Amino acid sequence: MSFDVNAVRADFPILSRQVNGRPLVYLDSGASAQKPRQVIEAITRAYEGEYANVHRGLHFLSNLATDNYERVRGIIARFLNAPREDEVIFTSGSTEALNMVSYGWAAPRLQAGDEIVLSLLEHHANIVPWHFLRERQGVVLKWVEPEPDGSLPPEKVLAAIGPRTQMIAVTHMSNVTGTVVDIAGIRAGTDLPMVVDGSQAAVHMPVDLSTLGADFYCITGHKLYGPSGSGAIWISADRQAEMRPFIGGGDMIRTVTRDAVTYADPPLKFEAGTPGIVNQIGLGAALEYLMDLGMENIAAHERGLRDHARDRLRSLNWLQVQGDAPGKGAIFSMTMEGAHAHDISTILDKKGIAVRAGTHCAMPLMEHLGISASARASFAMYNTHEDIDALVESLTFCRELFA
């Protein structure tokens, strides 16, 4: 199946609007992707004619909602090629997922002096939960710095492992530099438990959990063209068996008495309370949309965007792009001498171009790069070469203003 970017763009209603009198050029998908009509319609359908609480009713609508909701677990397993559907746990996104691992798996097992190896490429969501363990239990965080080009060779991660290392926490793709981390290469050198943040990677390339080597792998719906407040974490059955529940309440119990509680089997053991029913149904629609297009096709299209953007941005000798690792994703964080990232973003916005400005929830990486902020253009499957050309033209205009 060939990839038709114009047909894809037609599925996204928001891309037809104007901003500040100009056609919208949306280059902030690394923060949140836009939603196709198929997702919007699935959400509307769920609320208009199929909504009820799940798992708890015997009536028609509850059974229908439960079927639609639980069906998404299988969709996620298929999307990630997970070995088992019951290893998929619904979450509100990657932040909840990573905190679940910190509280449910790591906190009961790690003691003062034990180490967690993590990279400087991490989003705060894959940093702060481990800081909780440092603050509360005396766990030591061992940081691995990327190479000057932004790459993170597996051997650098493996070299940081010591006799007290208990786990590795690493991103699959940096949300700042687009660096793709060789997870399988790390796994080849160690059998330590490995937590992988797949928030950026899963939307840009095929993920095969049967061969990747992660013990924990999380995704977040709002970056996958699905609703905010949706997501999941895949946890191998062996690791699930080692975990305590993260949140207590309805659905995650089998029995409750005055004196005791027994828990439901996974995955419900880790899913307390009324969930984001329609959010997850929307995520399922988004993943089916992606699979229909083909993740290999999407990845090939985005490689073309990356290469065109790399060539065009390299021609701007007054622009600094942070990280240029081989095989990186189509994410470009930029700085310009004499212009703050917020100023760049504001000027581009006047041209109808949406980019991100700030630290991108990656302050340790910003400090390592020696910058306080950057303007980030993050591309998606609905972007075109013309979007990149408009970005370069507007960056040139911005440079002229600050020259």
Automatic annotation (TrEMBL):
<keyword id="KW-0808">Transferase</keyword>
<dbReference type="Pfam" id="PF00266">
    <property type="entry name" value="Aminotran_5"/>
</dbReference>
<dbReference type="InterPro" id="IPR015424">
    <property type="entry name" value="PyrdxlP-dep_Trfase"/>
</dbReference>
<dbReference type="InterPro" id="IPR000192">
    <property type="entry name" value="Aminotrans_V_dom"/>
</dbReference>
<dbReference type="InterPro" id="IPR015421">
    <property type="entry name" value="PyrdxlP-dep_Trfase_major"/>
</dbReference>
<dbReference type="InterPro" id="IPR015422">
    <property type="entry name" value="PyrdxlP-dep_Trfase_small"/>
</dbReference>
<protein>
    <recommendedName>
        <fullName>cysteine desulfurase</fullName>
        <ecNumber>2.8.1.7</ecNumber>
    </recommendedName>
</protein>
<dbReference type="InterPro" id="IPR010970">
    <property type="entry name" value="Cys_dSase_SufS"/>
</dbReference>
<keyword id="KW-0663">Pyridoxal phosphate</keyword>
<comment type="similarity">
    <text>Belongs to the class-V pyridoxal-phosphate-dependent aminotransferase family. Csd subfamily.</text>
</comment>
<dbReference type="GO" id="GO:0031071">
    <property type="term" value="F:cysteine desulfurase activity"/>
</dbReference>
<feature type="domain" description="Aminotransferase class V">
    <location>
        <begin position="25"/>
        <end position="391"/>
    </location>
</feature>
